[in-house]
Amino acid sequence: MTCRILLRPIQCHLALLEGDSVIGPSERLLAVLTDMGSVAVALSGGVDSAVVAKAAYLALGDRAVAFTADSPSVARRDVDSARTVALAIGIRHEVLNTQEFQQPAYRANDGSRCYHCKSELYLQVAMRLEAFGLNTVCSGANRDDLGDYRPGLTAAAERGVRHPLIEAGLGKSEVRMLAKQWNLSVWDRPASPCLSSRLAPGVDATPERVQRVEAAESFLHTLGYSDCRVRVHSGELARVELPASEMNAFFLAGHATSVCEKLLALGFRFATIDMAGLKSGGFNEMVPLEIRARFSRT
Q1: Can you tell me whether residue 57 is helix, strand or coil?
Q2: Is 10 helix (H, G, I), strand (E, B) or coil?
């Protein structure tokens, strides 16, 4: 199963010139969304989808609606962030209870989990397009996401989901710049993938397991580590990832002992810290090649 991401050209394309200068990132993004006519934005609570929601509201007003998935795999602070962002923007916001954990293929967590999760989300949103008078589903994927293993993009391609940030040629740095320019509170918020992404391929995705991950990461947040991961390997081994720049402070503050005690109290059998530091998409290299080939873009 391989899918191409089809990016529709618009009249105001990336090379469009106004006078002697290329139009800026905000103008490109607004032009992409204006061309769509009406949109349903998949709003996760992070900076990428927040910028898409803001731009959609600026370009389309009440012809833009934001939808947020709510399931055990979504951290409570992410749902709260999505609500806060939508309220600040002024865009209509709907929270959907998604049912990905009911899918055996999702629970098996063989490396294609994100495909099944995004398929469920986009199906739920698509089912509501007619009722809300909308015609297009949009994601928050940005240009930098194209360089990584992202099975969710295959799910998006199958369902005709569009990616305004990619179509406007915007990467993460430009997205954060726009978020700051538009006074979005999440402009500098660290990336926050779903809680199931913390489970190594082959470790069953269950509500109980991701709830323990959320509790563990919440404990780290209370200690002042806003950007962290607690990754789970077979045998209930919990591996803590922190930015390399914060590692010395972690040990000097004596947090290793309290974090270890907390992880064991939560039901993990072993606790360790990754001395290489935080790495986005840390489990991608563990995905079997046949799964990568099946659920990758071409």
Answers
A1: helix
A2: coil
Domain-wise residue ranges, the chain: 17-181, 202-282
Q: How far out from the chain centre does Cα 56 lie? A: 18
- Domain 17-181 is found in CATH 3.40.50.620: yes
Environment class of residue 215 by beta-carbon count within 10 Å: exposed (0-12), middle (13-18) or buried (19+)? middle
* 128-133 contacts at long range (C-beta below 8 A, 24 or more positions apart): 128/40, 128/67, 128/94, 128/96, 129/40, 132/40, 132/65, 133/38, 133/63
User: Letter for the amino acid at 270?
Assistant: F
Give the model confidence (pLDDT) of 132-170 as tens digits.
999 999 999 999 999 878 899 999 999 999 999 999 999
Let me know: does 199 contact 230? Beta carbons within 8 Å.
Answer: no
Architecture of domain 202-282: 2-Layer Sandwich (3.30)
Whole-model pTM: value is: 0.90
Residues 6 or more apart in contact with residue 248 via CB below 8 angstroms: none
